[in-house]
Write a structure and sequence with these properties.
Length: 149
């Protein structure tokens, strides 16, 4: 695990299935972060606010997955980004590589309405209470704080 990364583990959750590899994106605009609300029919974290992202497919690199997911879910092209760290999802056996996207082309829209019911920008003080966000809330708040300085 890289310096500055976090690990969240739920000791009550024991699962021998292979861990999925995923990416999540922290998009910052001014003092706000972009979140997506998962559709109620989603198997994991239904109807909760989350960071945009998804599974790394096949031989895809995390960076390739980051760019693909941003295009598929938000309709944007990633220009500049950096890795914030890796977190362990306490519900779904997944390692989530969290990236800060600092520059992108296009205006984020809900390009995946089958996955998300809405998208919106939130300030640090107005982040929704959401189990889906809890495993990487530290990365989100640190990135928002850094963006203000």
């Amino acid at each position: 695990m890289s310096a500055g990364s976090t690990e969240t583990v739920n000791s009550n959750h024991i699962d021998d299935s292979p861990r999925a590899r995923c990416v999540a994106s922290v998009l910052i605009k001014g003092d706000r972060v972009l979140l997506v609300k998962r559709q109620p029919h989603r198997r994991v974290y239904p109807d909760l606010w989350d960071l945009p992202g998804g599974h790394i497919e096949g031989n895809e690199s995390p960076e390739e997955a980051l760019r693909r997911e941003a295009r598929e879910e938000l309709g944007i092209d990633v220009e500049e980004y950096h890795e914030l760290g890796t977190v362990l999802d306490p519900v779904e056996p997944a390692d989530i590589i969290v990236f800060a996207i600092t520059t992108w082309h296009g205006e984020p829209t809900n390009a995946a309405p089958d996955e998300h019911s809405e998208i919106d920008w939130f300030t640090q003080g107005k982040l929704p209470e959401s189990a889906a966000l809890d495993c990487y809330r530290k990365e989100v708040t640190e990135t928002l704080t850094a963006a203000r300085t």
